[in-house]
Amino acid sequence: MKASLLIALLAFVSSSAQAGSGGAAAQKAEVCAACHGADFNTPISEDIPRLAGQYPDYLARAMTDYKSGVRKNALMNGQAEGLSAQDIEELSAYIGALPGNLKILPLHRFIR
């Protein structure tokens, strides 16, 4: 009896610690990683953005815009459709906190 209670308590503490360290968000992000890469730095093609290290508020806005249809992309509109506001917040915080490998383009490329 004591052993099973101890095992149950340890399982609960372990799952709570995992959820607190991004466990739930990491699980939700697995579907995103299929295209954006497991580390969110190595997308499957050049036209898919790297997301790790991006500003969480930018990510949240993009996902919210995909969800509402303001931003158009057949795949992303479908993926964002089922996300709640809390899902978007958690995913944005999780992905934004990952070590990023974003490209910084020189300003002179935009000034002509």
Notable features of this structure?
single chain, 112 residues, mainly alpha, Cytochrome Bc1 Complex, Chain D, domain 2, 60% helix, disordered N terminus
Description:
The chain has 112 residues and is mainly α. Helix content is 60%, strand content 0%. Helix 2 packs across helix 5 (85-97), helix 3 packs across helix 4 (74-81) and helix 3 (56-68) runs antiparallel to helix 5. One of its GO terms (molecular function) is heme binding. Residues 1-19 form the signal peptide. This is Cytochrome c4.
The first-level CATH class of the domain at 28-101 is given as Mainly Alpha
Question: Span between N and C termini?
Answer: 75 Å
Q: What is the CATH third-level topology name of the domain at 28-101?
A: Cytochrome Bc1 Complex, Chain D, domain 2
Low-confidence stretches: 1-21
Q: What radius of gyration results from the CA coordinates?
A: 18 Å
Q: Would you tell me the overall average pLDDT?
A: 81
Write down the secondary-structure element order. Answer: HHHHH
Tally of individual helices: 5
What global shape is seen? globular
Q: From the coordinates shown, what is the CATH architecture of the domain at 28-101? A: Orthogonal Bundle
Number of DSSP E strands: 0
The CATH H-level homologous superfamily of the domain at 28-101: Cytochrome c-like domain
What is the share of helical residues? Answer: 55-70%
Query: Biggest sheet, open or closed, and with what strands and sense?
Result: none
Strand content: under 5%
The computed structural class is: mainly alpha
